[in-house]
Amino acid sequence: MLTKNENMSLLGFVPALVVQYLANQQQITQLPEKQNLRSVVMFADISGFTNLTETLSKLGNEGAELIAFAINRYMELLVSAISKSGGDIFKFAGDAMIVVWPPSIKESAVENHEELKVICRLAVQSALDIQSKLNNTTILEDIKLSVKIGFGIGDINIIYVGGVFGRSEYLATGDPLTQAFKSEHHATSGGQIIVSQEVFDMVSDFFVFQRLQNDSSFYMVVKLINNKVQLKAGAQLIKNRLGGINKQQIMTFIPAALIPYIEIEQEKWSSELRRITTLFINLGIDLSDADSRLQHIQKVIEVVQKCIYINEGSLNKLLMDDKGSTLIVGFGLPPLKHQDDPIRALLAAQLLVKQLSLINCKCYIGVATGIVFTGVVGTSGSRREYSILGDAVNLAARLMQLAIIENKSILLCQKTAEDCEHKIDSELFKMVQLKGKTGLIPVYQITQQKSILKIHYYESKMGFNYKGLVGGKDKTQQILHIVNTFLMMDREGRISLADMDIERDFILLKGSYGVGKTFVMKILEYQIKTENPKVLILESSINSFEKIFKGNGFKKIIKQIFDIALSKTTYSQQELLVLISNGNKIIQKLLEELMDLNEWLNEYVNNFPNFQSNTNEEQMMKLIGQGIVKLFEIYFEQQLPDKKRRLYSQMMDDESDDVNSNDLSSDKVDVPPIIIILDDFQYYDQLSFYLIKTIIKKFNRILIIGITRDQFWEIPIMSRKGNSRNPNRSQELIYDKGVESIINLYNVTPNEVIMKGIKNIEEQKHFLLLYFGFDKFSDPNIHQILHLKSCRQPLLLIHLVKTLLDNKYLIKENDSVYATQQLQTLFQHEEWLQIEIPQICYQMNGPIIDSLSCINLLLLKFACVIGDIFDIQTLFKIIPFKQINQNKLLMSLKQLVQQDIIEFMHDDNENRYYRFVTPFMRECLYQSMTYTQRRSIHSLVAEALQIIPQPYEDYKELKRLEYHLKMAEQKISIKSSNAIIKFSHKAKKSLIVKQIQMILKTDNNMKVPLKKGFIFKRSDKKVSWQYRYCVIDSENMILYLNNQMSEQTGILPLKLITTIIPIFDKSDDQQQFCLQVGVSDWIKKGKVKGDKRVFLFAFESEDSLEEWTIFLEFVKAKSIYNDFVENFGRIQLPINLINEAYDPQLTIYLQEMFKGSIKRFRQQNVTEQLSNKNRKSTHSKPQQLQIVQSPIPTYHSPNNNPKRFSVRFSAISEQEEKSDDTPLKEKLRQFFFGSFAVLAIHLLTHIDETNYIVLGQEGRTMRRLNKNKKHKNNMMQRIPNIPSIIEFDFQ
Asked: Quick one: 149 exposed, middle or buried, by C-beta within 10 A (0-12, 13-18, 19+)?
């Protein structure tokens, strides 16, 4: 059952009508189900949304967030007005909403009719209120929104369909919705309310209407003519009255991406900017006829869910609106991010078209890829939904509409086509003008799925041929040598099918993602085919859809060899299946499954997700292996009846007659050997490895080459628990066991070739020269930075440099390239957060991020803003989540260390430091956050930096603070599309205070200038302005005649300043920015003026006035404090052993952990000393040990400050340790007792004083304290002398 908090959060994602139905039904036992009611429907469509999206899309990624902000803001106003009248927001449809007014069921038909009339009056009345208040509402600068409203009335059906993986969908259908859609379409501009004939007949006596000229069955509402009906919040009352509703039933209607955030009451942090591939799908069914076709609708939605979920996509919305029956599907939504989401989207689209056609349902699909806003849309109160918004979503909708017009099943954008071109072929359909787009847009269509990767693709992508290959040329030659040896032995007849004991080679090419493995193999294939044109090369690579099937890695090989076998015989397909299966129906069925024959895929979809094979796994592999061996025997012309045989020599008749000495031929043409290239080896299942092993054992004229990754394993969704070091451990075990079983064959020679990418800077320069045409940068350090950030991966380096060039961070001029000032500034801050990272980084890190728990993900997002290196005290200071306490924080960080996302660097008695490990993980986390989230965290970090000691040099601390304040207060201008940074007063104050502290810390001279410059001073007679050079140090504000500072005109002691008031002076008919400073005493020409005086200063700008004011206020307070300390001594309350900047409980945890590490160090040290003692038989005096643990140096590490960032402690002797066994609690009690005794001396020695001491004035207190010095020293003796291992720095 739902708690009160859950009632507020969960029920907001489901309409009141659905909640009421679930409460009455208790449980939906079987889908589909239908709910009937008679009521009023309103369809409200925001006018100006197209202009809004076109304008905001020009702002880049932030534009998607601003679109969501604008819609949320306007929707909130709409929802507020609708809720007051009792309306229930049934569906959000992008820039539109469908509203239904819940009816009250009466006893008689007459009462029900009258109740419906009242509801209809309420609905139209609320529409008039909306138009009077919200027409032409300014949401953002120069952007105004209005709303067009249409009404319908009658019998409504709410249908409940779907059910795959427990995910249900609800949908409103019926004639009232059709009326409302048509009514809204008749509105020519925002601000109009159009009703159908049925609504007009119901409420014509209460409103003034105007009949539309172009359609007499629709009317425009003009105004109200009778008294208003009393408002009632019907929808909200339904939810408030509910109690005891099943929580699980509500959860079936809520997207999986939201549930973790709802559980910790942080749904606002679910909003993200993500790279999504969006499918807009128009279904060719009439959902309005739910009475007669309910089962057909259920079947259609069920097929849709299966096709999407097979490819691990997310069904975001199902609705019937003005565009028909529409689905919105996202690939890349949490928690289902993959490296190949665009490919999955197209595979799902193709599967949808095929499967829906089998049940007589036509569909049209538009596909687009891009950065979009994903998160909650609606209001923070009664009603909201999880939506995807952005330019890519709008583009997908336009492509869907174009597909309907052009009668094309699938149309896709250019980005999607480019992302999928290595797996799926597409071609340009046409250049078209789309609504909301400037200029012609290229639109693509799918041609066919690639079964073999083509060499020209890699040549075009890499930009050069194999002669210019960097980092893999030696690997190519190494593999080519093995291949040529194999082919030469075959030509010379030294390899015989009958000789089963001959040694066979197995090649495994390994390397990380993006290192160029597949490219090397394409170069290799090109060379082999050039030198040996008759050799048969079979290739296989796995897409996401094929991963889930048995024999995933060998399916394409089997299908290719089956087609060749068909061509070598006169058998039909069915006869050949019977032959190789020996008539065994089980083997035949399994082979059909492997080769996707006889519509096996349809059976799989129909039974998903419960499809299972009843065959024993081991028995199945053995039976399939027997059939596959027969296929290869047919190819090699073994064990085939003569009457069914079609010799290879006969197949060669139509081919070239010229055969040179390098060809695989002699006097008699033999069957050529086979080279099998298997890509994506790391994803192969047990059956694939078994078949590979079987083929190697049975056929020595087959050479197998595997290509595998050794890093960046993509985590399967079923294994995403986020609590193990390798969430993909089961697949890794399959891979390890499979490879081991191959290389352990008695007659196999394994050849492991490892690609390690770009070796050094010189090789990187050569690589850039070949690909981009340059190898020099204006700053040589850029080469080192690129080498580190790309992790030596050629593909990542290409994407990284291309991104910098495309975004104008690097400017190419002739043969050299220079970094822009913006890029240099980011390098100085050692930050990459603002640089748009390459898409390949999202592909590598996205699945890892989505595998994390909600709490761990939020912690990482906050940590990534702190820096590449972050400390636990700052992290705990800035996280606003009450669910994360000190212990939970430590446990979460431990889990992230175990998952190799972050690494522990260093700890001391009060703090602990970590840093990010995975390349670009921090940048991926940061750029997935919305700009609002980023600014809020930057603001929190800026506040924390001013409190918590940082392991940086003072100058760098100031720069870091400035950077975070800039990022916190940066805003974007819609007019200019430029980022605007204007520091608030609070930010300026923080920077100035930090700057003053830095100056005073680096220069012990109290007279060092803190602020200086020319200002205007009003003359003594207040008749003119004088130009003066002003200098502020830690004690005085000094005025000079000029900047030579040779002649003083006045000195204002800061501790004697009484007032600092910034004012605006409009004298002399012009505005001036003035500062009024009052002093109780001042100095002129060396003479002390004993009277009060008010000075008036003027500045050229408001910013200058603000800056001088802040300097004066802080330095004045500092001067008074210094004077107090000089006269009365330093007192700090409360006295605390723990730095007050740190969290006390967290510090205690860290101290206990640090004490344990010291104890372990001591034990290790004692063990080593005893070992040395036994070896050398000498006694040595215990040495003072000093351990310094510094961070691993990288280009992005902070400059080390040994006073703060290193651990320093001394090992004490065993006798010293035993000499003081007083418990720590007792030591603290004694220390605090002594400390407060000292404090009592300070406070009580002048309790009888009749006169108060003026702050800053020397009095009798200090003299009396000196008299009691002896007594004070006696009290100090009560403080125990605690032996300390760790030296604390409380500064």
From this structure: buried
How high is the pLDDT of residue 402?
A: 94
End-to-end alpha carbon distance in the chain: 54
The yes-or-no verdict on residue 109 having pLDDT over 70 is yes
Tokens of 448: 């066919």
Q: Are 667 and 491 in contact (CB under 8 A)?
A: no
Instruction: Find the range with the poorest average confidence among 140-149, 856-865, 1246-1255.
Output: 1246-1255
pLDDT(1193) > 60 = no
Q: How far is CA 1139 from CA 880, 1154, 1285, in A?
A: 21, 16, 17
Q: Does residue 1134 carry a pLDDT above 60?
A: no
* Residue among 52, 56, 14 nearest 972 (CA): 56
547, exposed or middle or buried, with CB in 10 Å at 0-12, 13-18, 19+?
middle
497 pLDDT tier (thresholds 50, 70, 90):
low
- Range in 331-335, 457-461, 546-550, 745-749 with the lowest mean pLDDT: 457-461
Query: Cα separation of 1211 and 1224, whole Å?
Result: 19
Residue 324, C-beta contacts closer than 8 angstroms, at least 6 positions apart: 282, 283
Distance between CA 867 and CA 1194 in Å, rounded? 14
> Cβ distance 402 to 443 under 8 Å?
yes
Q: What angle do CA 485, 487, 488 make, to 5 degrees?
A: 65
Whether 768 contacts 790, CB under 8 Å: no
- Residue 917 — pLDDT band, cuts 50, 70, 90? confident
The single-letter DSSP state of residue 1202 is H
Give CA torsion, residues 1161, 1166, 1169, 1170, to 10 deg: -150
Name the nearest CA neighbour of 1033 among 995, 1053, 1052, 1007: 1007
**Contact call for residues 10 and 247 (beta carbons, < 8 A):** yes
CA distances from 376 to 45, 62, 72, 88 (A): 19, 16, 9, 18
User: β-strand 810-813 against 314-321: which pairing, if any?
Assistant: unpaired
Asked whether the beta carbons of 820 and 808 are under 8 A apart, the reply is: yes
Contact 734, 686 (CB under 8 A): yes
How many whole angstroms separate alpha carbon 65 and alpha carbon 371? Answer: 10
The predicted pLDDT at position 655 comes to: 40
Tokens 């850039």, residue located? 768
Strand partners, 149: 44, 193
Strand extents, DSSP E, 569-701:
674-678
H-state helical runs in 1074-1180? 1102-1128, 1144-1176
8-state DSSP, 1286: B
CA–CA separation, 699 vs 674, rounded Å? 10
Residue 481 parent element (H or E): helix 473-491
Is 217 in contact with 181 (CB distance < 8 Å)?
no
On the 0-12 / 13-18 / 19+ scale of CB atoms within 10 A, 1066 is exposed
Does the predicted model carry a pTM greater than 0.85? Answer: no
Residue 666 contacts by C-beta under 8 Å, 6 or more apart in sequence? none
Condensed to tens digits (0 to 9), the pLDDT of residues 846-856 reads 888 988 889 99
* Burial call 597-622: b when 16+ CB within 10 Å, e when fewer: beebbeebbeebeeeeeebeeeebbe
For residue 105, with 0-12 CB atoms within 10 Å meaning exposed, 13-18 middle and 19 or more buried, which class applies? exposed
Distance of alpha carbon 904 from alpha carbon 833, whole angstroms: 22
| Packing angle of the helix pair 954-969, 931-945 (nearest 10 deg) | 150
Instruction: Examine the pLDDT at 196 and tell me if it is beyond 90.
Output: yes
Which segments of 946-1068 does DSSP mark as H helices, in order?
954-969, 985-1002
User: Mean pLDDT across the chain, nearest whole number?
Assistant: 77
